[in-house]
Amino acid sequence: MQKEKLRVIRKQKGYTQQQVADFIATDVSNYSRKESGDVRIVKDEWDKLARFLDVPVEDIYEEEEATVVVNNDHPVFNDRSSSAGIITSQNNYDNIPGAIIENLQNYIALLKEENEKLKEELKGLPKGRK
Asked: CB burial class (10 A; 0-12, 13-18, 19+) of residue 27?
């Protein structure tokens, strides 16, 4: 089901889909699918959309019928795109649980250690084998 109220208010306010997508930390094609009703908009996103458009949630909210859910809290599947290299000052990492951040930091440390071991191993190889 198309989100006609959302689309109309977005256009009235003069925003592009890209601008809204950047604010809710997704890519424009995913936002377009949300606006067209192909992808579900979760409650947190409704709140962000209302804040961005400076309207009450009730002014834009419409019932969901989409069967596809994109979980924006998942750090692997959430691309948090910004368009064409535009850097925004908004911190888009505020809703990632600390345990996931810690796990990723540990994994990065492990990869750095492995990298150092491989570099040392390379130093010991004869010149023709590098």
From this structure: middle
Question: How many Å apart are CA 120 and CA 116, to the nearest integer?
Answer: 6
Burial of 96 (0-12, 13-18, 19+ CB in 10 A): middle
Do residues 48 and 24 make contact, with C-beta atoms less than 8 angstroms apart? Answer: yes
How much is the pTM? 0.50
User: Helix %, strand %, coil % for the chain, to 5?
Assistant: 55, 5, 40
Residue 22 makes CB contacts below 8 A (sequence gap 6+) with 81, 82, 83, 86, 88
CA 85 to chain centre: 15
Over residues 62-116, the pLDDT tens digits come to: 886 544 555 555 444 444 444 444 444 445 556 677 777 778 888 888 999 999 9
